[in-house]
Write a structure and sequence with these properties.
Beta-Lactamase, single chain, elongated, binds adenosine-5'-triphosphate, alpha/beta, five-stranded antiparallel beta sheet, nucleotide-binding, about 650 residues, ATP binding
Length: about 650
């Protein structure tokens, strides 16, 4: 305590005048203490909590104490042996936690610096704890700067601790014998207080995050509808119990899995900017297929970047099983897939399509194997279903298998089933394959061109001998199933290249039907556009929405690499997105609007395949290498884009450097 400072305190006490040399913070505090009529010679009344009240007060400030304690311990370790005390007080000035150096404990006792004591200015006059809380800022109080003489033996520094919302929760203080305080100690207190604040913020974020999570999990569970949340890579991040029930899977089987692989889906990302999107989907899981109605909504982060999608899933009520007249308890056929299409639902008046339909109707009358060839989205599965519906097997199952979606090592067990113990993970009691499930009905082998060669051998044997063995089985099985296969590939060329077995090709090529791409039957486009407009206008309740003739003209000029599926998706997107009453050319997706450029490019590059390859390359580059985004931009499914990448030998790494 310097004489000078002592002189300032004496002057104030004797004259009531505060000398100008007194630090403004201390000056304001002295004025407050005078107003509170604090006795400046000694503390008249110490306020001390009972042990029970102290425990309650600590409980009320539990989070602050829990976060601060380890940081205070560290600070105390740094100051150990130097005669200091590290103190945490609450916002009212009650000391909640103290770490005291042995050398200082007798001083502390003298002035009642202990847990439970109140060090606000009203009780103790000017001091770092009370004054930092009153001023709401870091404060040092040395020796005679203390208002009460008995505290002149102290030097202290305190820094208020603010909670995440900015409210002062308490103060962190270091007190020593007068003459001990230094700037370095003050700095250390400030840093420790900042650490406490940072930890409190993190804890708050964590708590709010957990709360939000619990809130939305609670909401999701309350919903009768199924809800699934996926991230931008299509990974399932959340789903509710209703969704599990509808989709026939357990939550733990889905979380962390890719939705397209899980449910054998395509084209989930067709709309980049739509606020919401409604569609019917057939979801196929290891437990079978279900037709569902989905409403999806893209979700965006604070910076506007897409973060994933939420899907609301409902079982489809007007199931196509009504068409077949065959229902199980849930309104779905007992085995096999939902059959939705008959020839009546196939839209198109073009000569080509009419020829295709008339051949299909004829072959429906007999049991011959049918090979449907055509680009993706041309309606191969639709025709296969229509053939089944027109045939005498219409009351039997229709079992669709996407050969490209099954891992090569599982193709045989999927098609022919397996016996218990056939391999690790094999189900108890074994499992029937798709052929067995298709007994008395039709089996539709889609993407047959993607079937692994090994499986081709087994398929050929089954077709020739009309019997097969389950994997790991000894007993041969005979089934009565009509076989329809489809591919977007040129099988004859694949045979030439050795990629497809010639004997199987001959076996399948009994009735070979080629479905022309949409660009080869442009006269069907207006009919299809109108039909899809009707469907989606009704769905979203916008009967007034019209498509301008100039928009239709552009749609007719586009090459539709994704064919009818792409056209349907585009119309659905427009109905959902367009705000006014008219769909103008400007509303069309960029790739369609730029058909002039496309035409020019086609003229330059020659074939449509080359054009398609270039379009895929450009989309991948434009989307920074994200295949999902590129597929969405091109309005094609992810499996389609991957297939085309393989087909055209596109080197993604080379593209994006
Ligand atoms: N002529 C048509 N009239 C009405 N809708 C059609 C027609 N052709 C196809 N579609 C619709 O287009 C979509 C794609 O048809 P489908 O799945 O049968 O094509 P695909 O050739 O089997 O495709 P992929 O090879 O990609 O499996 C379906 O939603 C189907 O309803």
């Amino acid at each position: 305590m310097g004489n000078n400072e002592a002189g300032l305190w004496n002057t104030f006490m004797e004259t009531g005048e505060i000398p100008v040399q007194v630090d403004p913070i201390i000056k304001r505090s002295w004025e407050r203490c005078r107003k509170y009529e604090v006795n400046h010679h000694k503390v008249e009344k110490n306020e001390l909590l009972s042990p029970a009240r102290l425990r309650e007060t600590i409980q009320e400030n539990r989070q602050l104490v829990e976060v601060a304690t380890p940081i205070m311990e560290d600070l105390f370790m740094c100051l150990r042996g130097l005669g200091f005390m590290v103190i945490l007080a609450d916002a009212r000035g009650y000391l909640l936690k103290c770490f005291t150096d042995d050398d200082f404990s007798s001083h502390a006792r003298k002035v009642m610096l202990c847990e439970g004591a109140n060090w606000s200015e009203r009780f103790k006059g000017t001091n770092a704890i009370g004054t930092s809380l009153a001023e709401n800022q870091p404060v040092t109080v040395f020796a005679t700067e203390h208002y009460v003489r008995e505290n002149h033996i102290l030097a202290c520094a305190a820094v208020p601790i603010k909670g995440p919302g900015g409210k002062t929760l308490g103060t962190l203080d270091v007190t020593g014998e007068s003459g001990k305080g230094s700037d370095r100690v003050f700095c250390m207190v400030k840093m420790a207080a900042q650490n406490i604040e940072r930890e409190m913020r993190l804890l708050d974020i964590q708590t709010r995050f957990n709360l939000n999570r619990a809130k939305y999990e609670g909401l999701m569970e309350l919903m009768r509808e199924g809800a699934v949340m996926i991230d931008e890579d299509g990974i399932v991040r959340e789903m509710n119990q209703s969704a599990c029930k509808i989709l026939g899977l357990k939550k733990e089987e889905c979380l962390g899995e890719n939705i397209e692989e899980l449910f054998n889906l395509n084209n989930l990302w067709v709309i980049e900017s739509a606020t919401s999107h409604t569609r019917e989907l057939t979801v196929s899981t290891k437990n079978g297929s279900t037709l569902v109605n989905t409403r999806t909504k893209r979700i965006y982060g604070p910076d506007g970047s897409p973060q994933g999608m939420v899907a609301i899933v409902n079982p489809e009520d007007k199931s196509a099983s009504e068409v077949t007249g065959k229902k199980s308890g849930r309104g779905l056929p007992e085995r096999g897939n939902v059959v939705r299409y008959t020839f009546d639902q196939i839209i198109g008046q073009s000569k080509y399509l009419q020829q295709v339909i008339s051949i299909c109707k004829r072959v429906a009358k007999n049991d011959s194997t049918v090979l449907l060839q055509g680009e993706t989205g041309t309606g191969k599965e639709m025709l296969a279903q229509a053939i089944h519906q027109e045939s005498s097997r219409r009351n039997g199952p229709f079992v669709a298998v996407n050969c490209a979606a099954i891992p090569p090592e599982l193709v045989e067990s999927e098609l022919f089933g397996y016996e218990e113990g056939a391999f690790t993970g094999a189900r108890k009691g074994g499992k029937p394959g798709k052929f067995e499930l298709a007994d008395k009905g039709t089996i539709f082998l889609d993407e047959i061109g993607d079937m692994p060669l090994q499986a081709q051998v087994s398929l050929l044997r089954a077709l020739q001998e009309k019997q097969f063995f389950r994997v790991g089985g000894q007993e041969s099985k005979t089934v009565d199933a009509r076989v329809i296969v489809a591919t977007h590939r040129n099988l004859a060329q694949m045979v030439e290249e050795g990629a497809f077995r010639q004997d199987l090709y001959f076996r399948l090529n009994v009735v070979n039907i080629f479905i022309p791409p949409l660009r080869a039957r442009k006269d069907d486009i207006p009919l299809l556009v109108n039909a899809f407009l009707d469907k989606y206008r009704a769905k979203v309740g916008r009967p007034e929405l019209k498509l301008l003739p100039e928009t239709l003209e552009i749609l007719q000029g586009y090459s539709w690499p994704g064919n009818i599926r792409e056209l349907e998706n585009v119309i659905e997107g427009l109905v959902n997105v367009v705000e006014g009453e008219e769909i103008t050319p400007r509303d069309l997706p960029e790739n369609i609007r730029n058909r002039q450029k496309e035409k020019a490019a086609a003229a330059k590059t020659g074939t449509l395949q080359e054009l398609e390859k270039e379009a895929i390359k450009k989309a991948i580059v434009d989307c920074g290498g994200s295949i999902s985004a590129a597929a969405a931009r091109l309005n094609i499914g992810r499996s389609t884009i991957y297939r085309k990448i393989r087909e055209y030998n596109i080197d993604i790494k080379a593209l994006i450097g």
